[in-house]
């Protein structure tokens, strides 16, 4: 009997010891996760919204601007020279000495070089000069080819070299020329952001890049944006928004600067999403240009019978430029559509095109040869396929 009792006690001690080591392992795992994420509750400070705004996080908030080029802690407002040096001459250090930069003609300036992991959460800037001549690029994790390459105005849904107020979740353009984007852009090792000035004159740039340093989850993909222009669109062809996208990801938005070369209606064309080895026919096909941008019946205000600008969280046509006596150019439109609630998901490849269609006699469609510029926005796992060569200065220019 004593032998049996001893065996039972030994077994119980072994179970207790196992539970002890299991508890220790769970505790260490919890502490490790807390340390990796930098927060006691495991919240990494990403995917921010009203629903999680009250949650505490040990993610580290940083910001880069001309007053702190590196974003280092405690290193802001230390400049003793800069574009505000003369205005601050009686006040000295700490009094807006370096609020902006000058990017000389035909040069590139590195706006940010950040060691990860972390995520860009907001970018604000107000560039001067011809927006098509200011080229915005972002590189992730030491890649040689950019994942974002776009004229700065088009990236911020304001591509016609003229101010248009935009109020959306992803992009806001505020008076008098304030560009803001709220696309979350995670990175794991490094983020590098540049601005190239391809103009023949210097440009002035005020900017602020707000980001957080925190753990990035495995499923987080990298942000991409690609610019293309068809000027004019070849007859009986579709404008290509993106093509050659390879890998796993999802498409999240389109901006278009559309110059109509026709005197009539221009927006009957369908958008098409070819995904995961689609060939002649796409998986997703829209029913018309104004339908894709969440409008209807030619974007016409039923009371005035005129084009109606609109700007909403997910879609808008914030810009309608009409020719006048001094400017006999064609009508121009700026449009955006963000797939925030309805991303277009792909696992192997993606191509996005849009048609330009009007009307001809007899109630027949008329293929148009318009001036169409676009930016496609998407997330995917790296590596990404190289982008096509950006159009040269003359091909980019808007008159």
Task: Tell me what the structure shows.
- This protein has helices at 2-37, 152-155, 289-292, 393-396, and strands at 60-64, 101-103, 107-115, 118-127, 134-140, 148-151, 166-167, 171-174, 178-181, 185-187, 190-197, 203-213, 222-230, 239-246, 249-259, 271-275, 284-285, 310-311, 315-321, 332-338, 344-346, 349-354, 357-360, 364-367, 371-380.
- The chain has 4 helices and 25 strands.
- The longest helix has 36 residues, at 2-37.
- The chain folds into 2 domains: 29-58, no CATH class; 100-396, Protein of unknown function DUF2961 (Jelly Rolls), CATH 2.60.120.
- The model is unreliable at 1-5 and 14-40 (pLDDT under 50).
- Strand 18 and strand 19 form a beta hairpin.
- It starts with a helix and ends with a helix.
- By secondary structure, it is mainly beta.
Give the gist of this structure.
The protein is mostly beta strands. The chain is 12% helix and 37% strand. The protein folds into two domains: 29-58, no CATH class; 100-396, Jelly Rolls (Sandwich), CATH 2.60.120.
State the low-pLDDT regions, or none.
1-5, 14-40
**Overall pLDDT metric:** 91
Major sheet: size, sense and barrel closure?
Answer: 11 strands, mixed
Query: How far apart, in Å, are the first and last alpha carbons?
Result: 101 Å
Number of helices: 4
Key terms for this structure?
mainly beta, Jelly Rolls, 11-stranded mixed β-sheet, 4 helices
């Amino acid at each position: 009997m004593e032998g049996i009792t001893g065996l039972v006690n030994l077994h119980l001690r072994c179970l207790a010891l196992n539970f002890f080591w299991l508890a220790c392992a769970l505790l260490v795992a919890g502490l490790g996760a807390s340390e990796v994420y930098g927060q006691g509750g495991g919240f990494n400070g990403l995917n921010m919204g009203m629903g999680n705004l009250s949650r505490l996080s040990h993610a580290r908030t940083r910001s880069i601007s001309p007053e702190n080029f590196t974003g280092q802690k405690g290193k802001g407002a230390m400049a003793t020279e800069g574009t505000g040096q003369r205005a601050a001459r009686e006040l000295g250090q700490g009094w807006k000495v370096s609020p902006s930069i000058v990017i000389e003609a035909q040069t590139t300036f590195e706006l940010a070089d950040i060691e990860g992991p972390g995520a860009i959460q907001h970018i604000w800037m107000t560039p001067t000069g011809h927006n098509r001549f200011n080229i915005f690029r972002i590189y992730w994790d030491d890649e040689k080819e950019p994942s974002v390459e776009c004229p700065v105005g088009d990236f911020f849904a304001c591509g016609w070299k003229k101010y248009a107020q935009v109020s959306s979740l992803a992009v806001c353009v505020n008076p008098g020329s304030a560009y803001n984007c709220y696309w979350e852009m995670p990175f794991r090792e490094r983020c590098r952001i540049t601005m190239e000035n391809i103009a023949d004159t210097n440009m002035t740039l005020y900017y602020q890049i707000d980001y957080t340093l925190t753990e990035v989850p495995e499923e987080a993909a990298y942000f991409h944006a690609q610019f293309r222009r068809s000027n004019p669109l070849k007859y009986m062809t579709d404008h290509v928004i993106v093509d050659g996208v390879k890998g796993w990801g999802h498409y999240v938005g389109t901006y278009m600067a559309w110059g109509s070369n026709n005197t009539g209606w221009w927006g009957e064309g369908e958008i098409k999403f070819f995904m995961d080895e689609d060939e002649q026919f796409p998986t997703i096909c829209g029913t018309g240009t104004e339908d894709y941008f969440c409008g209807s019946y030619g974007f016409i205000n039923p009371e005035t019978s005129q084009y109606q600008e609109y700007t909403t969280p997910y879609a808008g046509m914030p810009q309608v430029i009409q020719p006048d006596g001094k400017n006999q150019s064609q009508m121009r439109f700026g449009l955006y559509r963000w797939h925030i609630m309805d991303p277009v998901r792909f696992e192997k490849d993606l191509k996005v095109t849009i048609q330009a269609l009007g009307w001809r006699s007899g109630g027949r469609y008329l293929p148009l040869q318009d001036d169409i510029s676009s930016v496609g926005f998407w997330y995917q796992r790296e590596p990404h396929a190289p982008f096509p060569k950006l159009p040269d200065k003359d091909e980019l220019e808007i008159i």
